User: Which sequence fits this backbone?
């Protein structure tokens, strides 16, 4: 059984969808994204940054959503959520996951946690504005990459499509973020992922209130 340190509105929701798709037993351990609230000690022992997701299993543990995604896909190849190592689309799969993690998620951090990037409180609005511009830039890159493809990898659905949907749920008009309507190719994929039963279960609260 896997244990997943979890919090609503976080990347742990994407990992939960993967676990649902793989069909393995797992336990959710409640954590938080609020930096003022204490984290479970076991979570901090694995990830001293205090962030989720953190995944634990009998033989080990790890953190970082993109890394967990790659690990689960490779450990459970029967779920067909990633191309095999010798598949021509493997490089694009890995490239996209790392781009999501390093570029798009970093832009979100600028808007949600500007204090991590500036020394003075007065500079936080500037960091947030740059984050919003960076979101538009990075989502445009992905939208152009997708083009007319049915999925990120072409005709093949993968965990990268789930990851894209997860990121789309973080966009907030109240924060000045761009709308998914600006990225029609990415939106087309996100809308299809939304119809998956696993996503309907995990994201029920977001579906009812996207601004929750």
Assistant:
């Amino acid at each position: 059984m896997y244990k997943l340190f979890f919090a609503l509105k976080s990347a742990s929701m994407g990992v939960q969808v993967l676990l649902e798709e793989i069909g393995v037993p797992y336990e959710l351990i409640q954590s938080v994204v609020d930096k003022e609230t204490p984290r479970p000690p076991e979570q901090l022992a694995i990830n001293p940054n205090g962030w989720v997701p953190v995944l634990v299993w009998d033989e080990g543990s790890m953190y970082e959503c993109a890394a967990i995604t790659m690990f689960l896909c490779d450990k459970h190849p029967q779920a067909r959520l990633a191309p095999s190592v010798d598949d021509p689309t493997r490089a694009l799969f890995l490239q996209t996951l790392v781009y999501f993690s390093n570029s798009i998620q970093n832009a979100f951090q600028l808007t949600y946690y500007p204090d991590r990037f500036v020394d003075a409180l007065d500079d936080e609005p500037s960091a947030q504005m740059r984050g919003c511009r960076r979101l538009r830039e990075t989502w445009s890159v992905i939208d152009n990459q997708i083009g007319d493809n049915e999925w990120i990898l072409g005709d093949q659905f993968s965990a990268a499509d789930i990851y894209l949907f997860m990121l789309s749920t973080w966009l907030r008009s109240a924060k000045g973020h761009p709308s998914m309507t600006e990225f029609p190719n990415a939106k087309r994929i996100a809308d299809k992922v939304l119809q998956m039963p696993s996503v309907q279960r995990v994201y029920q609260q977001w579906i009812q209130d996207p601004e929750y």
Observations:
- The first helix runs from residue 12 to 22.
- The chain has a mean pLDDT of 96.
